[in-house]
Design a protein that fits this description.
The chain has 150 residues and is of the alpha+beta class. The protein contains 5 helices and 3 strands; from the N terminus they run H-H-E-H-H-E-E-H.
Length: 150
């Protein structure tokens, strides 16, 4: 039982330790470098006024609809989800566009996910059964050889 918890001897060799240190050093340099570069970029961007629907109450005047080709290319709202809704802010009385998620798109994505999971379940079920049969065959061969050697 005690032997199962030990670190393999191959992992303690100096060459492996140096490779691990180099790998994790590069990973941390990449992560911290990206964080530092991200801070520099954020200071250069000028602030944009927040849309009215973030700051005040609004009513939806046009429900969530899909953007056409022209709207998808010209409106930044359509770039996020491909759908938009027109809202009217109460206090400022402004009409603005707001990105939204379509229930039809969500349902389609859900069923796509479910079908993918069903296929993966069936695939890995077949893999498990095949592997179990191969291991059973090897075990019975081993038992047969042991019996023959007696």
């Amino acid at each position: 039982m005690e032997g199962a918890c030990r670190v393999p001897v191959a992992c303690c060799r100096p060459r492996i330790l140096v490779l691990h240190a180099l790998f994790w050093g590069l990973v941390s340099l990449r992560v911290f470098g990206a964080a530092l570069l991200g801070e520099d970029k954020s200071t250069a961007v000028r602030p944009v006024a927040a849309p009215c629907w973030l700051l005040e109450e609004f009513t939806v005047t046009v429900a969530c609809v899909q953007c056409n080709d022209f709207e998808a290319r010209s409106w930044p709202v359509c770039a996020q989800t491909g759908f938009y809704e027109r809202v009217n802010c109460s206090r400022s009385n402004k009409d603005e566009l707001k990105s939204c998620r379509s229930s039809q798109l969500e349902e389609k994505s859900f069923w796509h996910f479910e079908a993918t999971m069903l296929c993966l379940t069936a695939l890995f079920g077949v893999v498990v059964v095949t592997r179990q049969r191969a291991l059973d065959r090897l075990a019975s061969e081993k038992v047969r050889r042991q019996i023959e050697s007696i």
